[in-house]
Amino acid sequence: MHTPPVSKKQAAELDSDGFTILPQFLTPAEVDAFRQRIAQLFDEEGYSAGSDFKLEPGAKRLANLVNKGSIFQRAFADSSVLALVRQVLGRDIKLSSLNARSAIAGGGSPQPLHADMGAVPDEKGYWVCNVVWMLDDFTEVNGALRAVPGSHRSGRLPQQALADPFAAHPGEVLITGESGDVVVMNAHLWHAGTENRAAADRLALHSFFCRHDKPQQQYQKKLLAPAVQSQLSPELRDLLALDDPLNDVLSSQDVVRSGFMK
Ligand SMILES: O=C(O)CCC(=O)C(=O)O
Questions:
Q1: pLDDT at site 262
Q2: How far separated are the first and last CA of the chain, in Å rounded?
Q3: Pocket test for ligand 1, best of 62, 140, 145, 172 (most atoms within 8 A of CB)
């Protein structure tokens, strides 16, 4: 597995701005392999794609990807990415969910500024961190992420602090990049997928992590088939919290949480 090193500057940006971009972190071959498997899954799942989590207007989604191919381990078990996630959340982390999201060309429905899970930091600090794996270029017109640098330190949610979370924010930046780039983001950062005004859909994978003492967005132990679970290494089982009684208590109530989708 090709894992480019992360610089001190990138690590510092994650602290100060709330996100950092890892350029060309995936090889073109890795991007192609992800795209092929995701296209196959969209075909297989048809209209029900994404309904195992939530449907979102303006986007096609796939959920529960750990269960849908070992290829997706690349997107949640990378040592450099995990080091950055631990920089945000502390040592004890787990995967909260692994999903794909394709902003539909001309699909309208931009997202409001939000923090994932509607999460605000608690007395122990940050507890959500998201990693966005660009499988298409993110351009100014095709639904790139917008984010308000530093807002992860506000201790508030956009829906509490802003009159209109859909409106442009004076401090926001557009996070553009190339297919193969990866964005590691403190998910308390106020962020949103923008409208895709281009001619083609725009695809990304989201590996979403949380602190060990919080519920998973998608309870992996329940969602992963026994045959998938039995193939996982001890390290991956640990990341998925498959043998963690605390996680069973926290995550087993079927409450599906997003930052903004009802
Ligand atoms: O795919 C993207 O551009 C990110 C979307 C996002 O922020 C989300 O679904 O929470």
A1: 58
A2: 38
A3: 145
Cα of 230 vs centre of ligand 1, distance in Å, is 31
pLDDT for position 254: 63
Average pLDDT over residues 190-217: 97
Lookup: tokens for 223: 């969602």
Percent of the chain with pLDDT over 90: 88
What is the C-alpha to C-alpha distance for residues 88 and 83, in angstroms, rounded to an integer? 9
101 lines ligand 1 (CB under 6 A): yes
**Whose CA is closest to atom 2 on ligand 1?**
193
pLDDT higher than threshold 70 for residue 1: no
Position 258 in a domain: no
- Please indicate whether residue 187, judged by its CB atom, sits closer than 6 Å to ligand 1: no
Residue nearest to atom 5 of ligand 1 (CA): 193
CB 191 less than 6 A from any atom of ligand 1: yes
Q: What is the mean pLDDT of residues 179-205?
A: 98
Question: Residue 132: CB within 6 Å of ligand 1?
Answer: yes
Residue 103 lies in a domain: yes
Domain limits at 75?
8-251
Q: Does residue 167 sit within a domain?
A: yes
Give the CATH number, domain containing residue 220.
2.60.120.620
CA 204 to chain centre: 9
Number of domains in the chain: 1
Could you identify the atom of ligand 1 that is nearest to the CA of residue 144? 3
Signed CA dihedral, 35, 14, 88, 149: sign only: negative
CA 72 to chain CA centroid, Å, is 13
In a domain? residue 152: yes
pTM above 0.90, yes or no: yes
Q: Please report which confidence band the pLDDT of residue 5 belongs to, taking 50, 70 and 90 as the band edges.
A: confident
Q: Which residues pair with 134 in a beta bridge?
A: 204
pLDDT at 255: 66
